[in-house]
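Title: Request for sanity check on Calcium channel, voltage dependent, alpha2/delta subunit 3 prediction

Description:
We are preparing a figure and want to confirm that the structure record we downloaded matches what your pipeline produces today. Could someone re-run it with the sequence below and paste the raw structure tokens into this thread? We only need the token string, no images.
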Amino acid sequence: MVCLCKSSYLFKDLQPSRLSAPHFSSLWAFIFQKYKEPEKSVRVEEIDGVKVVKNLAVKMEEMFRKKAEATRRLVEAAEEAHHQHEENPDLQYEYFNAVLINEVDEEGNNVELGGEFILEPNDHFNNLSVNLSLSVVQVPTNMYNKDPDIVNGVYWSEALNKVFVENFERDPTLIWQYFGSAKGFFRQYPGVKWHPDEHGVIGFDCRNRKWYIQAATSPKDVVILVDVSGSMKGLRLTIARQTVSSILDTLGDDDFFNIIAYNQEIHYVEPCLNGTLVRADRTNKDHFREHLDKLFAKGIGLLGEALTEAFTILSDFNQTGHGSLCSQAIMLVTDGATKMYDDVFEKYNWPERKVRIFPYLIGRESAFADNLKWMACANKGYFSQISTLADVQENVMRYLHVMSRPKVIDHEHDTVWTEAYVDSALTHAHKLNEKSGPSLTTTVAMPVFSTKNETKNQGILLGVVGTDIPLQELMKLIPKHMLGIHGYAFAITNNGYILTHPDLRPLYQEGQKRRKASYSSVDLSEVEWEDKDDILRNAMVNRRTGTFSMEVKRTVDRGRRVLKMHNDYYYTDIKGTPFSVGVALSRGHGKYFFRGNVSTDAGLRDLEQPDVALADEWTYCNTEEKHEHRHLSQIQAIKLFMTGRKSHFKCDRELIQEVLFDAVVTAPLKNYWNSLALNKSENPDKGVEIAFLGTRTGLSRTKQFVPTDQLSNQDFLTAEDKEGVFNADHFPLWYKRAAEQVPGTFVYSIPFSTALENKSVVLASTAIQLLDDRKSPIVAAVGLQMKLEYFQRKFWTACRQCTALDGKCSISCDTEDINCYLIDNNGFILVTEEQSQTGLFFGEVEGAVMNKLLQMGCFKRITLYDYQALCREYAGSSDSARTLSDPFSMVKWLLTELVIFLLEFNLYSWWNVDLSVRAQRSRGKTMMVPCDTEYPAFVSERTIKETTGNIECDGCIRSFVIQQIPSSNLFMVVVDNKCDCSRIPPVTMDPIEIIYNESLKCDRLKLQKDRKKPESCHPFHPEENAMECGSASRLSSHLAVNLLPLVAATISR
């Protein structure tokens, strides 16, 4: 048995008074007293969640409305400019090509379509060098820069430059504005230089961006039929696969689809989805792409049965009330049809012709072209012939123009809003900040139509205009001070996908550029997973206003710690958009706010002190609305507003009044900390590095006791430490954790973000609560950052004093037969004799003891779920992957084919296809794939102050003692190490992948969650010219000639 002296004596030096200095022991009392002094003049108020969410919705509605108005002005200007323009096939026009600007040839002259283009850095555009007077034009690599259609389009769309500039002058919060042409070019403002990727390629084509597709067409249900008869072997099947993949690229979250392969039998590519359609989200499309590789060609093709199956699915699914309930189409990918199958069309599609037919003839032969074209013309579709992989994308895009005809003829400029996404256009314009990573954006877009009378019944879509809205701007509208320490705001789309939520994790790891494949289609139910019946989700999807309540488990510190609380949710719709917004308030101190009042002069005086900072991402005053105000800091803007010099500023007077109150109340801290800094005896070895304070209004004060370059963790309290500062969606971690402890007790921890980088520090923080009542708000938190080595030295010094006390203690932590640990309330080790174990979970080091502590109820295991997880999967090589993985080997193979094939082959397009394929596969390597995981977190039982336990290990009894350290979240654990208990497995926090059996996988695929379909629908129009139904395509002679040197250069490698 272990016999130790009382740990309360051992740890008297671990109280704040001993860990830092005697004066720091009164830090909490000092701040508490300062907030108590004006107690009679302050009042505590309960937060009205309904009022908060409605006010937030109004602010968001106003911001979205301004962006939509700017977009509408672009539509009007574009349509007027096109109406005035006469097409000229011989037009010669020099424009600023985004890739070629400021490029020079070997002689130092500007290259064609380049020219000198003035660029200046601008912090509003991520510090990119931009031109605020002009736009630039990007042309896809597989298109000819001087194609007459492109030159004419670029010429008339120059009229947009004036409107771009005027929009930005009206609303300085605007960022990127653009026009995506149906011809393929992309006009972007402000002008910025684009850079190819490491392969020299720019694969961006505006026409397959979601904002373009959603604005151009109505929601649709699509069945894709793929011919896998024997004649489709080899290159034809490869082209067919890529054609199907490109069709999937054109489907969005409001569309539904299925893929059927046919020969003499009908084969659903995903057998589980027999007879139904699924939403075209990223996850489902990627799932089907994986199955495409499993297709092989054999037998004969019975197209009649396949068409019958497709019509039946579309009809039956439509009757269920699910799906788009709008347009319907059948995409037919085949190398021929021996007849026209008019009997099938007559039975299922005539005379209404509600289902459009889009045949894609694969290969060079034209023997069956007439039959397939007849099918398209007879069913309001479009026929295309695809001879090479280079032809795929351009030919697939043609169907979008047909689907847009009814909308164009109706002249309905539907406003569409995308889900949250990262625009790949920006990755070509600059290298994103390595640490911040890409930022999420939503886009408002509208279609642009030809208004010329002679083309009215043709329904000509000119393109789509759009404006980006960074979600960071949306988050600036959130009144974080009203939501409390654990409260937050969130928004979702009509499909239930998250637009913004503090638990959305779009990147593989924080700070990395790489996005998760399904980052833009994370459902609200995957983060608010305690709502098992989707009550909150469905109410918001259906745009209701209401409230909801539930117990939740919120993880902090990168998912390693858990806080249990009860949340009240308030939600409503954002008018004029497909979005809904909600706020979550935690019960208890999270639903209360207190208001104080001080004179403006006193508040401003104390606010302007050098040790004071305000939350960067909180909006006290809106300095974004005027260009001349952008340089102002929030403190400068507050001063101008409160002194009346800028009374027209849009400022939150209520928040400002409270931040001035906090500035006055906490002002004495400056002198307090300065006196400690001057007293060298209080911190002789500079073990305490920083003292800090934060208030519920986002005000912070800091005092460094060592120079910045000597700090053990220089990221702390900077933007680099995202969890450690006030952000738009959360309070600092040290504030959150302190709030859940008894006020006046300190929370100690080793930050995980720093432990991994060997920046050895310990943080200690405590909360300031105004009243001794659960309803009293947490008004502030104070804390210290100290060196880990300093903290541990204090610990060991205290332990060694034990044996010298009165002789009753026979052993100490220096004794070889025992191991001493200092762990926190979540089981993480702060101090141990083995330095490598610092920061580890106690169960990984002492599995037997941790198991016993769980059995005894000293710690509780809490099961958590992660529906945004990534799991490692081995990606083996395959013939199909190998075929598409090396563009140079493919070029060599092509040399054995006909010369005409080389002339028609667009190497850049092929290369671009290859890159998209390689992004999905990694031969012979592990890759990260989306998965669901279950993992544990551990929390100590507060009521247990001290206990002992015994563990039997193969006949040997191992003893241990655990005692809570008063006024802290720490526990001393002393373990007898005489017995070998290694056979008892460790207790880990490793996540376990949730494996779904085939039946559950199928059920999950079939699951049709509630969604609110878009209000606008334009499936067909009686005036539509259905005879514009397609022809076989060929690359232009210009492009073929330009490809010859490119092919030769590639072969030479």
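Thanks, this matches our download. The radius of gyration is 33 Å.
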